[in-house]
Amino acid sequence: MLGFHWFELLIIAGIGLILMGPKTMQSIARNAGKGVSQAKDVKEKVLAEIPEEVTQISQQLARVPLSPQQAVQMLMAPEKGPVSKKQKLERPQPKEDITPSA
Is residue 68 part of a domain? Predict the structure, then answer.
């Protein structure tokens, strides 16, 4: 516990009791307990929010284009969702020109 032994802590508590008195020491101990409790509550809230943040970030990363072609494709058709791995591997086929020949 922070490099102190129980005997050293007992001596420090005894000196504090002599210097400040029992009521002040009781108040200090109560406030320290409340502070530790509040710190634990904050830690629990932060740890509860971390998985939500990670899922939001991973969803946003899935929409990031990995190549210039994907970026252009996303700009041309923004209503589509993220490009799948199968779509990444396939090359777009050139469209045939359907003009009547004379």
Answer: no
Establish if 43 belongs to a structural domain.
Answer: yes
Q: For 98, how many CA atoms within 13 A lie in the half-sphere containing its CB?
A: 1
Kindly write down the DSSP assignment for every residue of 4-71, as one continuous string.
Answer: --HHHHHHHHHHHHHHH-HHHHHHHHHHHHHHHHHHHHHHHHHHHHHHHHHHHHHHHHHTS-SSHHHH
pLDDT of 1 above 50: no
Structure token digits, residue 15: 């000196």
| Residue 49, domain member (yes or no) | yes
Specify whether the CB–CB gap between 20 and 28 falls below 8 A.
yes
Question: Which pLDDT band, with edges at 50, 70 and 90, does 17 fall under?
Answer: confident
CA pseudo-torsion sign 67, 68, 73, 74: positive
| Tokens linked to 76 | 């041309």
- How many domains is the chain built from? 1
Domain that holds residue 27: 22-55
